[in-house]
Amino acid sequence: MIENKEPVSRSEPQSFIEQFIAEDIKDGKNGGKIVTRFPPEPNGYLHIGHAKAICLDFGMAKKFGGKCNLRFDDTNPIKEDVEYVDSIKEDIHWLGFDWEEREYYASDYFGKLYDFAVGLIKKNLAYIDDQPADIISSQKGKPEQPGQKSPFRNRSVDENLDLFLRMNNGEFEEGSRVLRAKVDMNSPNMHMRDPIIYRIIKTPHHRTGNKWMVYPMYDFAHGQSDYFEGVTHSLCTLEFEVHRPLYDWFIDQLKTDDYRPRQIEFNRLNLTYTMMSKRKLLELVLEGKVKGWDDPRMPTLCGLRRRGYTPESVKRFVDLIGYTKVEAINDVSLLEHAIREDLNLKAPRVFGVLNPLKVIIKNYPEGEVENVELINNPEDESMGKRLVPFSREVYIEQDDFMETPPNKFFRLAPGMEVRLKGAYIIKCEGFKKDGITGAIEEVYCTYDADTRSGGNTSEKKVKGTLHWVSAQHAVDAEVRLYDRLFIHEDPSGQKDDDYRKFLNPDSLKILTGCKVEPSLGTAKPLEKFQFQRLGYFCVDSDSMETKLVFNRTVSLKDSWAKMNK
RNA sequence: UGUCCCGUGGUGUAAUUGGCAACACGUCUGAUUCUGGAUCAGAAGAGUUCAGGUUCGAGACCUGACGGGACAACCA
């Protein structure tokens, strides 16, 4: 075994988690084994925030030669469904991670958990409380004041055993009784004040049906599940920090040898302009504000996928933001950078004109067509070249022409010259304007036959180069522009819970009458392209009629400013 | 009037465990007949929340402030 496959010096930053794990191995804990787990609750679709956890859980296991389990934390049948189980598995695979045969469910451990609870009762460390939720809650006191003991705290072991059995037999109503661990009502940590560990739920479970009438709470299931699976490092987000003493308390009651799992917390992903609460995302789906969990405006992994993000770009992004204990807000521009970086290498460039403006080259022979050669990807020669037809009438982007241009405008304007990329230099000789609306309808130009790309025999040089599409050859396209993910806060950092307020009706804009290169007529579905200058898109369906732009040309900050005018 | 966690350029992270604060994103400037929001080159921007202390030397260790966050679900 040789350590250091690469001469990576100290330049590679190590997260504190990595250091903790390395220390544990060095100290010989758990026999040097490393097992992690990704533990989603199947109550919604995975979003970009989960990607951060997935990359960590699977990444650490891989880095230290260990394994990572997939475990569904399905202890609350009221909120869970198989639909979510399936989507979660699909999304993890999409990201490129594999749990192999280790697909586990907390519900697989219901039996063991029940036995463990019975064991605690017998040790006089758990009791049945007959009080309603609000009383139990108020007896817990406040964080700064100690709690009061429940009048049922000293029930006999036999009575507790009997009641727990009958709870599971369905003899009592939901909410009428709970099982609580007997820990410490005076603890400054609220989670240690006799936490509820079992409650009655009569809704059928998506995997165990009606087998159980009592279900363990998160705190009574998570650590134990880790223990049952031999997990060594249980990585979770910061809000579980206060749960750790309880996690350890249950492990202490359970463990029989030197092995013990360790919980380590890291910071959750927050993205600027992006609303990530599962609950609110679910509301958007249920209220029909979006087309579904995979609506490209959603920050879900399936939404990002439809939007055109690649798994590599998501992983790259996660890699860039790192893991700390600081509650950070990451800038979406970094996510956008990650996808651009990835696609610049992979996506062929093509011409597309979203807002067409017809240009007529008056001295170009009518009816003549010539094919010009264009490079598919300037960063990757192996992607080859393509031939694009050029003719007398072409479309350019409306933005590429201005009647009265400002100082540094190097595109087309009356009297100005530009190159049509891959073709000729043209000069604007005039234009036609609608008398009423003032809209530019056509632009008239002349071209110089000596200036063809690759064979420019003239001395001409121009500042601007425009992309274009031959009018008679253009493929009509419908292009969807997704401006942003959901916004939940403004750039001043002030949070606003009323996320609906930030739902921009224009966030999905469908442009029809767009003109794209004929070569796109032969593209395969889901192939990704970059419009020269405009952004990236992919062919959305077999119909070939819908093109999907996911990385448009206006920054989020600009959108925000526009929206609030 | 509690317990725990956290304060490093605008943002996110580093700093070989006490030795000249580094990188990425973003921003700005310049170049370019590969549109240029790409690429390349360059620049600006923090003295590490504050005050003490230990030390030859502190972003790191200690004490105390200040600021932010988590915790009072029969959710996870």
Q: Could you characterize the architecture of this molecule?
A:
The radius of gyration is 31 Å and the shape is elongated. The model is unreliable at 1-11, 490-497 and 541-565 (pLDDT under 50). The chain has helices at residues 16-26, 48-63, 82-95, 110-122, 133-139, 157-168, 218-229, 244-254, 278-286, 301-307, 311-321, 332-346, 556-563; strands at 35-38, 67-72, 103-105, 126-129, 178-181, 196-200, 214-216, 233-237, 262-266, 349-350, 352-353, 356-361, 370-375, 385-390, 393-397, 417-420, 425-433, 440-447, 465-466, 469-470, 475-482, 508-516, 528-531, 535-539, 546-551. The chain contains 13 helices and 25 strands. 26% of the residues lie in helices and 22% in strands. It is of the alpha/beta class. Strands 10-23-24-25-21-22-11 form a 7-stranded mixed beta sheet, covered by helices on one side. A 7-stranded mixed beta sheet has the order 19-16-17-18-12-15-20, with no helix packed on it. A 4-stranded antiparallel beta sheet has the order 4-5-6-7. The N and C termini lie far apart (63 Å). The protein binds one RNA strand of 76 nucleotides through helix 5, strand 6, helix 7, helix 12 and strand 19.
